[in-house]
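Key result, reporting period 2: structure in, sequence out.
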């Protein structure tokens, strides 16, 4: 019967199994490769790029659906429908102008008010000059109903607003859209508007102060310059808090 010293000597002289060694080495290599893959900056960048591309496609799909919906709504009505008022038969033209302005909030023009009155109060038969005079009267007094957002010049109409300066809190994706450097490249009306918006942005609070003029410019540019990248940019930033500017 072998002694303990003989058994220990026998075990020490046994050779390790080559297959087992290969399996262990392969396992270690797989672990190293997996760790490298998990912490590979290039792989993470690729994943971020793929997610960004997916988000862009989703945004584009949403914008296309919104454009289609807006076109359908414009076919039905170019102005908001006012609720039924049993005293409408006693309403004066000035009352109707004030009521329409309160419904529109921003982007108020003489022609816009005329169209809205013709639709909601056809018996008043509004004349453009009378509506213009009424709008001017609403800007007077210690507590005027209207603020002059943009003074009319030549063929360009005056724009009015029922609100003063508006401070809104932006979400992070809206802030990212506002701070997009590509928005200020080049020169033109949109670039000038974007530069003015950036001056009103408070980075520390994530808020932006929109004057009646800035809201009127957003409203005007969005409609007058056709559809495209700029319209999508400004809508993405402000449509949550100010949907009436884009309806």
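The corresponding designed sequence is given below.
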């Amino acid at each position: 019967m072998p002694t303990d010293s003989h058994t220990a000597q026998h075990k020490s002289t046994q050779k390790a199994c080559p297959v087992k060694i290969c399996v262990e080495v392969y396992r270690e290599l797989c672990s190293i490769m997996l760790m490298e893959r998990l912490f590979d900056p290039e792989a993470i960048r690729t994943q971020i790029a793929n997610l960004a591309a997916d988000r862009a496609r989703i945004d584009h799909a949403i914008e296309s659906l919104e454009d289609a919906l807006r076109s359908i709504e414009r076919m039905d009505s170019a102005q908001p429908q006012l609720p039924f008022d049993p005293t409408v038969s006693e309403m004066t033209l000035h009352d109707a102008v004030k009521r329409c302005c309160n419904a529109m909030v921003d982007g108020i023009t003489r022609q816009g008010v005329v169209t809205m009155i013709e639709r909601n109060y056809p018996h008043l038969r509004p004349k453009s000059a009378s509506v213009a005079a009424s709008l001017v009267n609403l800007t007077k007094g210690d507590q005027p109903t209207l603020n002059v957002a943009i003074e009319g010049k030549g063929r360009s109409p005056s724009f009015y607003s029922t609100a003063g300066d508006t401070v809104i809190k932006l979400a992070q994706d809206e802030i990212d859209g506002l701070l997009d450097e590509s928005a200020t490249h080049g020169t033109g009306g949109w670039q000038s508007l974007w530069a003015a918006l950036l001056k009103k942005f408070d980075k520390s609070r994530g808020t932006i102060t929109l004057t009646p003029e800035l809201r009127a410019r957003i409203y005007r540019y969005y409609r007058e310059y056709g559809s495209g990248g700029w319209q999508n940019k400004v809508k993405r930033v402000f449509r949550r808090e100010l949907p009436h500017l884009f309806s």
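The chain is about 55% helix and 5% strand. The chain has three domains: 51-80, 88-160, 166-245. This case is discussed further under Risks and Mitigation.
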